[in-house]
Each structure stands twice: as structure tokens, then as C-alpha cells.
Amino acid sequence: AYGPREGETAEKAYLRSWAEETLARVLERLRDHPEWYETMRLRFGFRGGGMTYPEIAEKLGIPETDVANHLHRARKRFRELLLEELREGVSSREELEEELRFFRSIF
């Protein structure tokens, strides 16, 4: 994960690694809300394909409306945590927006 991929410059590999490490820190912090984390993990398949709302509801034994609510809250908290992580390395709102755009472009 840390070396350049085929056709990737060393700089691009470094930036990708930084983004992956940032994502890992955010996801680790999201574990403070296990039901949200688990729902996101199942939906977005952190290590593979994601599941549908009905599949998640069945696996977790909860109504689909709870799945939707968990995902809504998890996305909101994820964004808050990501912004906190990104703020640590910038000094202005413009730099924060630039970092956020870059982060989105990686994923």
C-alpha cells in the first residue's frame, strides 16, 4: 500500500498513502459508535463488496429504517471526523476545502 502502484509517481503514492491513513484514523474513531460503524462497514464493504439495506437489516436483525438512520448518522459523523483530521494540517478555510477536494478525488 505504501509503494507506488504501476504507472503511479512517488508523489502520487505518498498522497494516496496519506489519504488511506487518514481514512483509517477516521474509521477507527467512528468505532466509538459500533452500530454506525458496523452498518457502514456492511454497506460500503471496507474489505469487499457492500450489502443492500435489506441485507444489512437481516444480518443485524434490525428494521431497514434503522439501517437508513444508522447510515445517515454515520455519514454525518464521518464527515465531522474527517474535517477534524484535515483541519490539523491546514491553516485556512481555503486550504481545508482544497484538502477535502483532494481527499474526495482519491476515493
What is the SS-derived class? mainly alpha
Give average pLDDT, whole number: 89
**Share of helix, binned:** over 70%
Rg to the nearest angstrom? 16 Å
Approximately what portion of the residues adopt beta-strand conformation?
A: under 5%
Distance between the termini: 14 Å
Largest sheet: none
Q: So what's the oligomer here?
A: single chain
**C-alpha geometry:** globular
SSE run: HHHHH
Low-confidence stretches: none
Protein described:
The chain is mostly helical and 107 residues long. The protein is built from five helices and no strands. Helix 1 crosses helix 4, helix 2 crosses helix 4 and helix 3 packs across helix 4.
Indicate the topology.
Blueprint: H1 10-30, H2 34-44, H3 53-60, H4 64-87, H5 93-106
Helix pairs in contact: 1-4, 2-4, 3-4
Summarize the structure.
With 107 residues, this protein is an all-alpha fold.
